[in-house]
What we know:
Serine Threonine Protein Phosphatase 5, Tetratricopeptide repeat, Heat Shock Protein 90, 5-stranded antiparallel sheet, 5-stranded mixed sheet, 13% strand
Amino acid sequence: MEGLGHRAQTILFLAFVLVPGVALIALSIRIVSQDRELRSKRQEDERQRIVAGARTQLAGVLESIRRDEIATELEPGESYRHAETVLAAWVEGGRLMLPWDAERDRTARQCRYWIERPDFAASIRACETGRTSDCYRKAAAAGNPVQAAYARWLWAQALESAGRAGPAASLYREVLATGPEAADEDGTPLALHAAQALISHGDVSPEVIARVNAVLLSRPWLAPLSAFLVRDIAQTLARRPDGAAAKAAAEQLQERAAAKVRTIEQAEALQRDFVRLHGLLQSRSWAVYGDDLWLVGTVGNPNGAILAVRGPDVFRRVQTPPGARFVDSRESTGLPLGAGFPGLKLALPFVSPAAVDIGDELQRRLFHLATILVVAATMFGAYLLWRDLRREMRATELRAQFVASVTHELKTPLTSIRMFAETLQMGRCRDSQTQMEYLGTIVEECERLSRLIDDVLLFSKAEHGKRAYRLLPLQPADAVYAAARALEHALSQGGYELRVSVEDGLPRVLADRDALEQAVLNLLSNALKFSGDARDIEVALYRDERDVVVRVTDHGVGIAEEEQARIFEKFYRAPAHETRLIPGTGLGLALVAQIMKAHGGCVAVESAPGEGSKFYLRLPAEPERAGEA
């Protein structure tokens, strides 16, 4: 111990006094000579910090949008949940299906269904052949709103062809009042056709413009034919000299229509490029696409839904330094945002490092800092030396206690085995029943030795990470009953009464049966040892929320509250007088804690001196069964 102390003191002195002193002198020279390098590095670190912060903020904003827009299918009058969302599309058969595709647009499908019904289609063909108002009037009286609006539109066209502009305009106004759910075979709202006809005849009333705006805003997107029709209407209105107010309304309509057309064109380009882009859309990633800088990501998986948001709108929700801007790979400047945002970069202006000037002030303070560090290093070395010696003494004490405990634990059963074996060998026991009792005692003591050796070996394996657990679904009651059977003889010899209660309908747990049985057996052995004069031991198995709980209760000596946190440490035994009189190695509860940790569970205790103890093993229920429950 003295040699170890001298060597330790010398090594610690060199390691924590002389070496730090020399290192500090070298460090001071290096800091002064590399001032410029440090400034540059701090600036780069600051730039990377800004990029990392922007990446985190952007990912959070996009994740909230992704979460809210999952499986969005819009009906007329609905909109996306976020203003930044520009498109939600679906992948079917490796092809990107846009929301206005014939297979996806529910409104267009419903309109075609009503228009192409055999009875209605036959009446429309008859009207187109005869071109009589009575025929169209009868068709327009159909009960379904789509059929009625479609018949009125055709009727108005027939009247207009016949030169009856007045009645035709009246019918067009009726069609204009219909909602966007009434459309032709291509999914174009009939109200747009009516508006175009009215405007071509000089009707540019606010009602007509308002209805076109209503159709335009009924969804965040329009089918291409509808968008182009709105654009033509807006261009026609913009060319008419109908006053400043009408001209402003027409220009606003024209801007909105142009935005819809741009969205359609970029979405169709995305559809064409989807095969190339699909490789970038890994889980939780967002690829930058198009001139309008869309951010395109997946919803669920790359073969499910595709979500596109307007990049500039999302970027405004990210806090960045003045002058910073998000750019794509077409610009050479900027720092990449990482694998989660392929093709997206953050261009930063010159960023001054948020640090003090490393000049004369650093040199002046460096020597004061060196003195403080040397003193601190010396004190730290003294503390480590004291801690090392204290730890060595504690380890020596624990090893000695463990050796004494194991020796006693081995000696007691060996003495019993030898005594009963010699008695049987000498033939002093003539009674067969007594012989069976002696043999039973020998077997029990052998099992006790096996358990002791198993505890030591299993604990050693677990300490070195060599124990492998086979976690399989099992009923925890099986392990509890097996542990109870293993202690039947010891319980009966000591006059103990063991009561086991199992709640009905318990789910299975994922566990290593041998390890779980070992944990329960250790708790039962402890209850047997520390029951004192009490002879009742209880084991309860029940469910508590998502866990299955094994509770072992004794009514013995109990454990002081200040000792309860340490009883699961290896080799530790409570210092109470009653505990010291009871043999043990201090490994049982430590092994239980290791087993429960490996199973994703935990062990806990409730106890008070003289009132007994309750030990709880909590195991998570098997996930499938937990979900059913």
